[in-house]
Description:
Distance between the termini: 45 Å
CATH class: Mainly Alpha
Number of domains: 1
Strand content: under 5%
Shape: globular
Order of helices and strands: HHHHHHHHHHHHHH
Helix content: over 70%
Number of helices: 14
CATH topology: MetI-like fold
Amino acid sequence: MEPTPERKKGVQAYWYLLLLPIFAVLSVVEFYPLAYGVYLSLTGPTGGLTLSNYSQMVADRNFWNSVAVSLTYSSFSTALAIVLGLGLTFLVTQEVKGRRIFEAIFILPMAAAPIMVGIVWGPAAVWDDFQTFSHFVLGLPYFQEVQILFYFPVMAFSEGWEWAPLMMLVSLSIMRSTPKEIYEAARLHGATSWQQFKMITVPAVLGSPVMQFVILLRFIDAMRAFEIPLSWSTWVGFETSVGSPVDTLSLYLYKLLFIPSFGFPLPMVSAIAVALLVVTLVSATIMMRLLGSIGR
């Protein structure tokens, strides 16, 4: 028997009621903090509404430096995560004994805390020992670990290294869902493993909406990177200054809030936090359009 229109409306209203607890939780943990942050960013010294915090933010060159650092860092680290993830995918799909063990080992970086990744890839953990070996064993000259052309790529690499396993797992799932007949036809025509991977797997992975969504999430997450830049801020001597090459927007906010010499400028910090949200949304939209063009 076909349900009456009144019954259909009643069922729809029932399902909407089931969504009320979700909206209640989101209101507490998402909407209220966001709305209150916007309110603080529009609050002046006397408590009235003003745009002075945003005008001060726009006039601050340290803010624009942090925007540039965040965009560069997130773009570079996301690209490295994709490249490293595809490289790991190629390695674990080769016909070698124990490849399941290697696949499990390759996943380990994703389980590490970001602050530990920054410490592990820092000078005291890796590069000092590498310098000692290269200088006294190989006879190579010392290189400067505190030069931006060295430490910024290392920062981005460590971020990409941590999240490359996620790209590998998604790539493997997409690869295994690709029809096997395509690979069999390529082998019959004499294609090597590398040629199959380059001509079949890589286009299938990068053109997949699932991978594009994961890349977008990785980029958004990298835009708010904090732990790894914080650890390198200490290594290179910028822990109490702003406007440095390691000051992402999140680290810039942290320094303004927790370094006493800046005077705890909460309204200004709220304005920068809102700007971080806007910059992330705009850059993510641009990236989504660029990724969408790959699958066409």
